[in-house]
Amino acid sequence: MPSAGRKTVLRALLRDPMAALGLGLVTLFVAMALFAPWIAPADPIRLNVVEKFQPPSLAHLAGTDQLGRDLLSRIIYGARTALSIAITAVGLAGLAGLVLGMIAGFGPRWLDGLLVLLFDSLSSLPMIMFALAVITVMGPGTGTLILVVVLVSIPAYARLIRAQTLALAGADFIVAERAMGASGARILLRHMLPNVVGPLVILLSMDIPVVIMLEAGLSYLNLGVRPPTPSWGNILYDGYTSLRAAPYMVMIAGLPLVLSTLGFTFLGEGLRDALDPRLQGRGAR
Amino acid sequence: MTDELLAIEGLGVDLPSGGWLPSRGRPAINILSGVTLDLKRGETLGLVGESGSGKTTLARAVLGLQPISAGTLRFDGAPLESGSDFRAIRRRTALMFQDAAASLSPRMSVGEAVVEPFVIHRAPAGDRRAKALDLLAEVGLPPEMAARYPHELSGGQARRVGVARALALKPALVIADEPTAGLDVSVQAEILNLMADLKDRHGLSYLIITHNLALIRHVADRIAVLYLGRLVETGPTAEIFARPRHPYTQSLIAAEPRPDPRLRRADLAIRGEVPGILRRPTGCEFHTRCPIARDICRSTAPALHTIGTGHFARCHFPETTKKGG
């Protein structure tokens, strides 16, 4: 891709105030996750029962929880948990969806039929039921969580890629490659791939908050990340159980969830708007 | 026959009308049938016909991009049957598309696009960048074009890039699908002159697919006219334009606009619409629109009649239709 194209996308993102806000929030959370050990004022799992339920103060900017742990540090480390799970899960699912979708769209018809059947079966399972079933079998934990997200998300990504691939298969430049004698692998990797990933990237960025919410939800139910690892979900749960003693905890734990969801959603929508006119312009040629 | 480059015999192409599940009672759609045609080394053959007459399908079938249901193909003396035969012909043949810009990979620069054939066939190209600039120079494009992307090209430039890519592996045969479509008249002339120059320089043979009679008259040595997937007339260009024998060819030539207001259009203009390929007329395909159709035309398909040297027409009454021209 020409670097000029990337610059125009960034410029279009910054021109749209919502997208710029999204980009800012996402950058903030990514920085929190990456530099948690340097940013966090205290150790997120060190207990200090003497200082439990402290409201926000200069010593503890976001207060402390029922075990006296510094909440701001737990939120910052929680970003690490949330983003690493969301990005790993969405990345793996995106990769698998990309490969399966391209195979379905470009491969023989029987294989396409088989894969579409598989996607339809997977997406007919209700997500929460499926997640609970997998957790029951494999036990709660980060790995299980990622597996559930990957399995549940593959069909949507694969269908998108399959549709893109099918639409491209009849395009003149693909027929031209075949007429020149190019192999199937070369056509797929060199000519299809760069033209189908764009929409997938948009979809993935809009799905990251969904996974963050799922992780928080399952951790809240004690089915996700195991304590004492900080997760926004289990901080929220701790806040809920201590609602009378420390009402600020729920709000502080909910804030990053709300902000990161909004941030990724705004960014995804901004990306879609920034990329779409260009895609249509290219398609019309 | 050593000067024969491409021989097509009794070519038929059917398109299955159903999906991938077995079905009953839905016959295949017959796109091409019984097309016999040959192309000599160094010759330019013009393939003429309306939209939907099967011109493009014929080109694709020759390259193995479209499975054939009947007939045989021979390229440079060797039959084209298996996948490896078609790999061989794809290396020695180049296809130029009607929409040149759309035939270029949108995220590949012009410089990469023109040397793509070398990469595909792992052919030694020396320095690929130098090779790309050579090819661009040969079609009259400046070196800075190598860094451009397809959407940054004008119609004429895209067409030249298409020609450069076609030339890359020094093909024996170039199949050009509507080489002047969508270009304005001065650019059309440039492209045609370029193609003629390159033909002389590299000893190319052309199969030019078009509905543009003025173009074909200018460039082709021989013409083949297709109607609804069947060859209706073939012969040397001068002969066809002077003495067209099939009423369809006559109508095509009569319908061609002439830049002289005093000349009245010949009255043998074509009537009606092309019948759908799903409902192929019985007997002679053209009888529904033919000005001289009689009973036999509705019931019996005519054979190819020899008119003169290398001039054939598929009509029951090739002698009675002397008008036109």
TrEMBL record, chain A:
Main site of residence? Answer: membrane
Q: Which regions span the lipid bilayer?
A: 20-40, 82-107, 127-152, 196-225, 245-268
InterPro entries, per database record: BP-dependent_transpt_permease (IPR050366), MetI-like (IPR000515), MetI-like_sf (IPR035906), OppC_N (IPR025966)
Organism in which the protein naturally occurs: Albidovulum sediminis
Protein name (record)? ABC transporter permease
| Entry keyword annotation includes Membrane | yes
Topology within the bilayer: Multi-pass membrane protein
SUPFAM superfamilies hit by this protein? MetI-like (SSF161098)
Which residues does UniProt assign to the signal peptide?
Answer: none
Using the record's annotation, list all stretches that form the ABC transmembrane type-1 domain.
79-268
Q: Which domain of life is it from?
A: Bacteria
Which family, according to the similarity comment? Belongs to the binding-protein-dependent transport system permease family.
Q: Which Gene3D superfamilies match?
A: MetI-like
- What are the alphabetically sorted keywords of the record? Cell membrane, Membrane, Transmembrane, Transmembrane helix, Transport
Please verify whether the record's keywords include Transport.
yes
Q: In which compartments does the protein localize?
A: Cell membrane
TrEMBL record, chain B:
Recite the UniProt keywords alphabetically: ATP-binding, Nucleotide-binding, Transport
Family of this protein: Belongs to the ABC transporter superfamily.
Q: What is this protein called?
A: ABC transporter ATP-binding protein
Instruction: Note whether ATP-binding occurs among the keywords.
Output: yes
Q: Which GO terms describe its molecular function?
A: ATP binding
Keyword flag rRNA processing: no
Principal subcellular localization: membrane
**Its topology with respect to the membrane?**
Peripheral membrane protein
Name the source organism.
Albidovulum sediminis
